[in-house]
Amino acid sequence: MKNHGWKFIVNIPPVNKCVICVAPHTSNWDFIMGELASRSVGMKAKFLMKDTWFFFPLKYLLKALGGIPVSRKHRTNITGDVVDCFNKLDKLVVAVTPEGTRSLNPHWHKGFLYIAHEAKVPIVLGYFNYPEKIVCLDKIFEPSGDIDADMLSIKKYYDSSNICGKYHENFTTGLEKQQ
Fold first, then answer.
1. Contacts of 167 (CB under 8 A, 6+ apart)
2. Looking at the predicted structure, is the pLDDT value of residue 1 above 50?
């Protein structure tokens, strides 16, 4: 896709079911660019978003686009609910930003790993690179079930990739502290 200089690159074969891990997530523009890019190639992904965004009238638009509200105040079984959806449907793509915020956060959420492992679906590693105006679905990652090892592998991928969010100072994998 070329749209105002942006390119959408797909380095993976088509998949009917997957969890897309998207990073870095540093701006609300990530959502807009991701939606435009995925729809330009006929892909419609559902996405998890904090429930405070689902207010009138925006909630109707977000739900129509595939939004799934997630409560941060109340413990819910969102992982089980999404796994159930994967088990019931022939096609389902769910995009997740493991950072869970646009702010600097080295403690990535692991729910997407549990979802992918329990639903037996691959994880697609996708990224934004603002300086080069690229949105990319780059690599398929098969979860092993060892959540900590899988998270480390995924963080190493993003740490070694030449990517940069809109606000690069708000992105970290947290690995620099472990090395």
1. 26, 27, 102
2. no
